[in-house]
């Protein structure tokens, strides 16, 4: 399988291990989000792209809660 990018959302310790592994492999692009927020994944075949601002707005409005 050909993978262009890997994204990890989770806590700090597994993120550090993931980064260490990816540095020793041939992964070209790695995105780490290590603050415990839930990811929002938009696939290439998404039909309702106009809905993307909804979760972004929710994160922006609730940032003071975490």
From TrEMBL:
Domain of life: Bacteria
InterPro entries on file: Ald_DH/histidinol_DH (IPR016161), Ald_DH_N (IPR016162), Aldehyde_DH_dom (IPR015590)
Molecular function via GO: oxidoreductase activity
Annotated keywords: Oxidoreductase
Domain Aldehyde dehydrogenase: 2-50
A UniProt-annotated Pfam family: Aldedh
Record protein name field: Aldehyde dehydrogenase
Organism: Caenispirillum salinarum AK4
